[in-house]
């Protein structure tokens, strides 16, 4: 994430053919944007993802996408930041992005829609300092080296933490690193602290302490989340696929809610970590069912968008003040990007 470099640089398949046909017909009537929807299926759906202990990881591991979509699924794993570039380049159809990264991309004209909240971040992202760093509070960061992936939710949270505590960015040496590089630099002793997410976070905590978490920041109005986005042209052509993509993710959330042991076991195997560790990591965030996502606190409905719109606009305003955005963001940009219709259709 390169907040300072400005960015120029977002989710859905076959249950029964007849039911799909009926669903498509309804959507065409209810959503003018879907008038050009194709009854054909894509040969392959390209899904961009990241190493995170969430619903998407379960859906991938359990084969839910193939089951729901009924077409070949190509899973491509990225580091934060790179995945947005892949979406802009149209090399993927769906992408998992942090809310800050999605905000930057959309504010800069990325042609994508927001269709799902993977998780609302809490203790799953934290600012951690090495035990021997003499850092016990945000104010102790002055003069220290702090790493995080720029343009990520972690970067946004770090900058907001500095701002809330009256610390200038200029007083801290901020380093743009991806999670594998952060862990390597931590082990070498090249950095004093890092704002990181799981599973790297747990490795840092073996020799570190929590200074502040995204849960702490959320209590102060700084809410972050991981979101799913889809290319607009893909969603316009294949609205049924997008709704089925949502069904696959909702199936994963329901598995987590109804059989947590099985869900945790699946994540542990996918991430090559212990089940105990996987359970701890998943408890660091809030997972929402499709019904819950339509609550006014999140997506809201097609007739009345929810608080997600305002949250993204607030993030964009901050990024603009940080000079990470060239143009002042408009609320209408995010009103158009947040699309609850696919969740609504997935629930029919």
TrEMBL record:
InterPro entries: ABC_Gly_betaine_transp_sub-bd, ABC_SsuA_sub-bd, Peri-bd_TauA, Solute-binding_3/MltF_N. The keyword Phosphoprotein does not apply. SUPFAM superfamilies: Periplasmic binding protein-like II (SSF53850). One of its GO terms (cellular component) is periplasmic space. Its main location: periplasm. Keywords: Signal. One of its GO terms (biological process) is alkanesulfonate transmembrane transport. Residues 44-263 form the Solute-binding protein family 3/N-terminal domain. It is found in: Periplasm. Residues 27-46 are annotated as: Disordered. It comes from the Bacteria. Pfam families: OpuAC. GO terms for molecular function: ATPase-coupled transmembrane transporter activity. CDD domains: PBP2_taurine. Residues 1-20 form the signal peptide. Belongs to the bacterial solute-binding protein SsuA/TauA family. NCBIfam families: SsuA_fam (TIGR01728). This is Taurine-binding periplasmic protein. It comes from Pelotomaculum schinkii.
